[in-house]
Design brief:
CBS-domain; 17 strands; 4-stranded mixed beta sheet; 5-stranded mixed beta sheet; 38% helix; Double Stranded RNA Binding Domain; alpha+beta; 3 domains; 15 helices
Length: 390
């Protein structure tokens, strides 16, 4: 079954009210310290925490804490970002869009300016798994939605290096390799635990008291060796079911003992994104809140893909994900992440900036040049192969 067919099977779930998946919410007070806030997250084994602020809500997650210099004394009100909230009329598709756009795993559901609960990516992933089980979708490959060639780290690299990579690339999972073989996984939560004061993590756990000294030890000291993996030929249904049953936020996709990709909650909930009806399937997730910006992004990406299809007929599918990197007043700094999938591989493009239309124009120029070069090289190869012998 193609991704397009799979997409159609989620139509009912897209329109399901998000409050059907409500669960208890994790809340901190604005007066709590970062150390107290992280302590709540650790005790509750959660990733996101919300802070009510006079009718608005700020959010903090594990990755946000990686940028804190003194985690024992910082104030969460200086670190949290104001986020949109959900209500009783919000659909599951809209909740998925906002989670992807704001890079969150949960969003609070509000009634009369009071947080009643949260809708999490975990709950949505479970619902997607249930739909696949009921509709019997066995043939869609996990490789169709995985993030290919994920960023990895060596077992001998330091925890500080992993922390820097996660902050810069805004990711929460780093597969750990030794001699190009997967030996474990390190997450943002693992690093935050190291950053917490010695009294909390246990002075004997690493034998070091100073925070910076703890960050300078090798990543092998904290990696999780029980890494969740699947084969690149496994079905999406089996991988999603495995992640749900193992309560895992990721699954590393391997092929012949090498890391080929990774699937996280975000990759799965992207199946609820918007599909543009064109000659080939075009999927967009995390479109901006502003309707004009959303329509502009949609039209620019669609027109680009249609043009690329003429240049490179082997294109089978295109995906684009829009995420917010930073908010400064009314301005938003975006990241766009596009994948053009053909029979010969994936052409990827990532860009970060404040001007969304300009970013799509830059993507258009880059991908057109790259794919035109591929076509040129392919044609040269064909001319060479059909050249008659002297």
């Amino acid at each position: 079954m193609s991704i397009s067919d799979l997409y159609e099977s989620f139509n009912e779930l897209r329109n399901t009210p998000a409050h059907n998946f409500i669960e208890p919410v994790v809340i901190a007070k604005a007066s709590d310290s970062i150390s107290e806030t992280t302590g709540i997250l650790m005790d509750r084994n959660c990733y996101d925490i919300f802070i009510p602020l006079s009718g608005r809500v700020a959010a903090l997650n594990m990755r946000d804490f990686l940028g804190v210099k003194n985690i024992t004394s910082a104030n969460p009100s200086t670190l949290g970002k104001i986020i949109p909230t959900l209500n009783s009329e919000t659909t599951t598709a809209e909740a998925a869009r906002l989670m992807s756009l704001y890079r969150l795993r949960a969003l609070p559901l509000m009634e009369k300016n009071e947080i009643k609960g949260q809708i999490s990516a975990k709950k949505i992933v479970q619902a997607i798994r249930d739909v696949m089980l009921v509709t019997a979708i066995p043939k869609t490959s996990a490789s169709d939605i995985m993030t290919p060639s994920p960023i990895v780290i060596s077992k001998t690299d330091t925890i500080a290096s992993a922390k820097t990579i996660m902050k810069r690339r805004r990711i929460d999972h780093l597969p750990v390799l030794q001699d190009n073989r997967l030996v474990g996984m390190v997450t943002s939560k693992d690093i935050v635990e190291v950053m917490l004061r010695s009294e909390r993590i246990g002075r004997k756990s690493l034998g070091i008291d100073d925070t910076q000294d703890r960050l300078d030890i090798a990543i092998s000291g904290i990696l999780d060796k029980n890494t969740l993996t699947s084969n690149i030929d496994d079905t999406l249904q089996s991988v999603t079911d495995l992640m749900v049953s193992q309560n895992s936020t990721y699954c590393v996709i391997k092929g012949i003992d090498e890391v080929q990709g990774i699937i996280t909650y975000r990759d799965i909930i992207n199946l609820l994104g918007e599909k543009v009806e064109e000659e080939i399937p075009i999927f967009l997730i995390g479109l901006p809140d502003d309707p004009l910006d959303a329509e502009l992004a949609k039209s620019k990406f669609t027109n680009l893909v249609k043009l690329l299809k003429k240049i490179y007929p082997d294109i089978e599918q295109a995906r684009c994900r829009v995420k917010i990197r930073d908010i400064q007043g009314a301005r938003k700094r975006y990241e766009i992440d596009a994948n053009i999938i053909s029979t010969h591989g994936v052409a990827s493009y990532v860009n970060v900036g404040w001007d969304l239309p300009k970013m799509f124009d830059q993507m258009s120029d880059s991908l057109k040049k790259r794919l035109a070069h591929r076509v040129s090289q392919k044609q040269k190869g064909l001319r060479y192969r059909v050249r008659p012998a002297p």
